[in-house]
Design goal:
single chain; 803 residues; alpha/beta; six-stranded parallel sheet; 24 helices; 22 strands; disordered N terminus
Length: 803
């Protein structure tokens, strides 16, 4: 193996540091600890036997399928080591977020070296036998992932998808004034949209009430096969970029281990002192100047300390070091010697005793107890989770003297409930949203709190303050989602409110969080966290001034793809149902709850007591709207969502007025997963319960909030196949709310026509009514074109039935 090293990167700010931060003996020990971490990392990627190389390495000792990422790993080992030193020196409450999470060997190896891995997984002992298990389990069937995963103690960040590390770190720091979150950002990850925006998160961190985030940009130059942008711009431009984002960047650059240890040690101490000074000035001197928090740029070779050249190709310092730098298999048996030489370069005999235990003098470098980053309680947030102090939602109930007698704005009612929750929970509840809290009519929260904002303010700003329970002043769904996830993962509670159409921006982030919840629920040492609660308002049926671009209910389709043990979807029909549903969601644990609710004035149907009963069941017959009490129905009219409920009840009014002999059953669905079989979802109805509501053979006209095929998908196994679903079908423009329903055939006229077409017994009366309604649709179209508003009888419609 060629031992030629790369020329070091030119040093800049780092040159100014002396060489007295680390005493020679401490430097020797730290470098040895780093070598131990690197040795364990290589062993995890390659070996399942002979962990200490006590015999010559053979191909039979190497995994038949070698999978992993080496390139980022030695740099992360270097960072973890130096963070351990400052944790001990300053007694810091700190944990580690691994942005380049595919460098799983680094974090797993360090958590093992500090002893946390063996505490959590006692079968992986601190000896040669444990090393063999540690190596074998990595990226191996029945083992652990090759990236930082829920199985990794100390992690709150799934490393499979890049871009969210810094957002998670800031979410963790909110309301944690004693915490420092060290966030390692990969330079490839830094090219993603969410991460590029996350540098602005420092404008939302209050140095008094919040903790600190210390970003460390791991600038090693390459992605999987391309250079990284930030590594190929001039030093001055890179420094200006971060200063322009409000940071004070410190640079640690080079490839000589001894020099780099000293530079990193000095730089980290300066960063910690900067953080302490910022927080001290704010907390003790009431300094309200927005701080320029420190960050570190670590420029080191990709695959540092690894193979320099293999088969004539340069490896270290190139993209070829990204994954597995040496291919070791039956077709390349000569590479076994290269691998052995590489591993022996770390001199394991100096690091581990004959039994495979880390030398005591090296083990002493790691923090102890909960100060170990792998054992930090914030990284297992359920340990710290406290129940919310919940007000009585009933006091916000809308008075409903009879169904449809009064109108109400559902989210405005909910806003008052959230206001009371925010007032009672000043350090563990927040509302997140991309500048939509007011638009979604949740403004009542600003009666008791402000928007958190640490940038400049001017005279006409509203509700801006350094600290607040609302974080909605950044127009980025990615940041709101990432902040909330970090907040929840470290043991707090929250809500994400968004326009329904644009929640799709975080489809992938939701997926990653749902996967995290699924895996952690299967790990007994992971404690359950508060549920991720989405409030989707400004929904598809209420976009009369925004139009087609704001119309997309497809998040529901995406959500139900995830594990039934994790996802819940609710579509309350009115404000009282919304209150009941949201009280339940905020008390729940370890779910993703999606709640769709309207903000426009609509008829209110249920008293608060009726709403509680109905929402507890999740689905039910609305007897007051039905007339089949003494017989089997001729027709089932079902609805799910506030607008479909309105249109179904209007259709029932028309049918009962003109075809009174028809027996109609009205079924309202709040909990969407009730439609799925009990064998597929814990909320699903049994076959007999489903049949008791929907019958085994009667026609079902189902008005649904979203795409029609979602209901078909949930019910395809049911006995009754006479299901006719109407929902959104990608028709829309800037028009009235009712005209939107007409364009998508979800209006009352189309529902009645559909019912008549399914029921031949309506005879000539049905045919006459159908013709009248078809004429009404034509009249409506002409009226809309001329007046730009709905027919008067639509605008003035009232539900006339009574309980």
């Amino acid at each position: 193996m060629n031992t030629t090293t790369l020329a070091p990167e030119p040093l800049h700010e780092s040159d100014s540091y002396g060489t007295n931060t680390l005493a020679p003996e401490l430097l020797r020990k730290m470098d040895a600890y780093w070598r131990a971490a690197n040795y364990l990392s290589v062993g995890q990627i390659y070996l399942y036997d002979n962990p200490l190389l006590k015999e010559p390495l053979k191909l039979s000792h190497v995994k038949p399928l070698v999978v992993g990422h080496w390139g980022t790993t030695p740099g992360q080992n270097f960072i973890y080591l130096h963070l351990n030193r400052v944790i001990k020196k300053y007694d810091l409450d700190m944990f580690y977020v691994a942005g380049p999470g595919h460098g799983g060997p680094a974090i797993v190896g360090n958590v093992y070296l500090e002893g946390t891995w063996s505490d959590i997984y006692p079968d992986v002992t601190q000896d040669e036998s444990g090393l063999k298990k540690l190596f074998t389990q990595f990226s191996f069937p029945g083992g652990i992932s090759s990236h930082v995963a829920p199985t990794t103690p100390g992690s709150i960040h799934e490393g499979g998808e890049l871009g969210y590390s810094l957002s998670h770190a800031f979410g963790a720091a909110f309301d944690n004034p004693g915490l420092i979150v060290a966030c390692v950002v990969g330079d490839g990850e830094a090219e993603t949209g969410p991460l590029a925006t996350a540098w602005q998160s420092n404008k939302f961190l209050d140095p008094i009430t919040d903790g600190a985030v210390l970003p460390i940009l791991h600038l090693n130059g390459y992605k999987i096969s391309n250079p990284t942008l930030l590594s190929r711009i001039e030093h001055e431009e890179l420094e200006q970029f971060f200063r322009g984002c409000g940071w004070t960047p410190h640079f640690v650059e080079g490839d000589d281990p001894d020099k780099m240890h000293e530079l990193m040690a000095a730089t980290l101490e300066e960063a910690i002192e900067d953080i302490r000074e910022i927080q001290g000035n704010a907390r003790e001197k009431s300094d309200t100047t927005r701080p320029r928090w420190p960050m570190i740029v670590l420029r080191s070779p990709k695959g540092w300390t690894g193979p320099k050249v293999v088969d004539g190709l340069q490896i270290e310092g190139t993209f070829r070091a990204h994954q597995v730098p040496i291919l070791v298999d039956s077709e390349h048996p000569e590479h076994v010697a290269l691998l052995e030489s590489w591993m022996k370069s770390y001199r394991a005999e100096e690091l581990f005793d004959e039994n495979g235990r880390l030398m005591p003098e090296l083990a002493d470098l790691a923090p102890k107890g909960d100060r170990r980053m792998g054992a930090n309680p914030h990284a297992n947030g359920g340990i710290l989770l406290r129940d919310l102090r919940m007000p009585d939602f009933r006091k916000h109930a809308v008075t409903v003297p009879s169904p449809g007698a009064v109108n109400g704005q559902d989210t405005m009612v909910l806003g008052k409930f959230l206001r009371d929750i925010a007032s009672l929970n000043q350090d563990n509840f927040r509302v997140f949203g991309p500048d939509e809290t007011v638009s979604n009519l949740l403004s009542a929260v600003f009666e008791v709190t402000n928007r958190q904002w640490d940038a400049r303010k001017v005279a006409n700003d509203e509700f801006l303050a350094p600290a607040g329970r609302v974080v909605d002043s950044m127009l980025s769904e990615h940041q709101c989602e990432g902040w909330l996830e970090g907040y929840l993962l470290t043991g707090r509670h929250g809500v994400f409110n968004s326009y329904e159409a644009f929640i799709r921006i975080v489809d992938s982030m939701f997926s990653q969080h749902a996967k995290w919840l699924k895996v952690t629920a299967e790990l007994p040492w992971r404690r359950k966290i508060a549920s991720l609660n989405y409030l989707l308002a400004s929904h598809v049926w209420q976009q009369d001034h925004n139009g087609f671009t704001h119309q997309d209910p497809g998040f529901l389709d995406h959500v139900i793809n995830k594990k039934a043990s994790i996802v819940r979807v609710y579509l309350p029909a009115d404000a009282n149902c919304l209150l009941s549903v949201f009280d339940h969601c905020l008390r729940s644990r370890h779910y993703v709850n999606v709640v769709v609710a309207g903000k426009h004035a609509l008829p209110q149907w249920l008293t608060i007591d009726e709403a509680i009963v109905h929402c507890t069941e999740g689905i039910g017959i609305w007897q007051w709207a039905s007339n089949d009490q003494e017989s089997e129905p001729d027709l089932v009219m079902a609805c799910c969502g506030d607008t479909p409920t309105l249109e179904v009840l209007a259709a029932v009014s028309i049918l009962r007025e003109h075809l009174p002999e028809l027996k109609i059953r009205v079924v309202n669905v709040v909990d969407l997963m009730k439609l799925q079989s009990a064998s597929e979802h814990p909320h699903g109805l049994s076959e007999s319960d489903y049949d008791s509501l929907f019958t085994k053979d009667k026609h079902i006209i189902f008005a649904f909030h979203g795409y029609p095929w979602l209901v078909h998908r949930l019910t395809y196994r049911r006995t009754n196949c006479n299901l006719h679903v109407r929902g959104y079908k990608e028709e829309g423009t800037i028009t009235t709310a009712f005209d939107m329903r007409v364009q998508n055939d979800l209006d009352r006229f189309h529902l009645v026509i559909d019912a008549i077409d399914r029921l031949p017994q309506t005879g000539s009366k049905g045919a006459y009514l159908k013709q009248q309604l078809q004429d009404k649709l034509i009249e409506h179209k002409q009226y809309i074109d001329k007046h730009g508003e709905d027919l008067p009888e639509i605008r003035n419609w009232k539900w006339s039935n009574s309980r």
